[in-house]
Amino acid sequence: ATIPLGCSYSRDMCCNQVNNKVYCGANGYTGQSVTIIDGEGDTVITYLSIGNDIQDMVWNLIENEVYCMDFDGGKVAVIDGETNGVVSTIQVGCEPRALAWNSTNNKVYSGNCMSNSVTVINGESNQVITNIPVGETPFALTWNSTNNKIYCANYWSDDVSIIDGETDTVITTIPVTWGPQGFCWNSINNKVYCGCQGYAVDIIDGVSNAIIASVPLPDESWGVLCWNQTDNKVYHANIFADNLTVIDGQTNAVIATIPAGIGPQALCWNSTNDKVYCANQVSNDVTII
């Protein structure tokens, strides 16, 4: 199936498992920046105008709220998962690019590109707790619930800052293939997948923080990844090849290549229906796998 979006240049997606909704954020200069999709019928519920450039989104299960990153505005908009209304707006650092949610401590993390920092937000009150200095141009975040660690991809310093989710301090910084741009975490094997512009997905061990493998890609990576827990597969969107690379979560081997729309730019997995949603930036639609 393919679903039209409210505007062009899709950026990111997330899934609300309580209400079975999929959210797609895009460039609001060309229309309505957030499209909300019914996960059961695969139809559009509504469109929202939130900022001009939604670079990332994350869902808070405890509060049933979706956090939307407004890159140009330097803020995070919070959407009620039930009503679809905006309930809060949080000012963060300069040019925020990435979000992650820590369910153990109910915190939301915002990676701020031009501030070289990560803003920590209280998930209940939506108030800023602290700001953590990291590497140069934090571009992506993910959370490891097993070890309560947050991983921050620093694009220009070619490394990953690993943050303690309890204390909000940097534990260590590890070098990766050049241009890290995105993550996903595999909870079955406790691996973090880091998509790097240098034509590779680096795989980090969740316990030791060491790189244990590097999977070559057909083209440079924009770090668009998601993990399918049911089948233990990792999907990587190849934006210039118009397809997805599928990686076996156990063996780290590439097992398939799936065609997508033009310019696949965002992925999310819906555990309720075991579907992967792929937002295509150029063809302005969503491919459902």
Automatic annotation (TrEMBL):
Signal peptide: none annotated. Transmembrane segments: none annotated. This is YncE family protein.
